[in-house]
Write a structure and sequence with these properties.
Elements (H helix, E strand, L loop, with lengths): L1 H14 L4 E11 L2 E13 L3 E3 L9 H17 L3
Antiparallel strand pairs: 1-2, 2-3
Length: 80
Amino acid sequence: MEKVYELSLFKELTLRKLNVKRQVPVPVLCKGEDLNAEFKIDILVENEIIIELKAVESLLPVHTAQLLTYHGLTERNLDI
């Protein structure tokens, strides 16, 4: 379900002439070294707004932690 929601939202935002990217890789760095692992942001709007889609009945703390992790990682290196 999440993939369908992602594609639909991407289409809607694109039609509104926003700068939108899907499945944006976010490298994981440790003490400045790339760990050759990456997270992927579902949708990035105008290189500022991170949208992480979930098809769940309720959000759990792990979902909040995921978004905060993406924010922390991208805040330093959002040159996408």
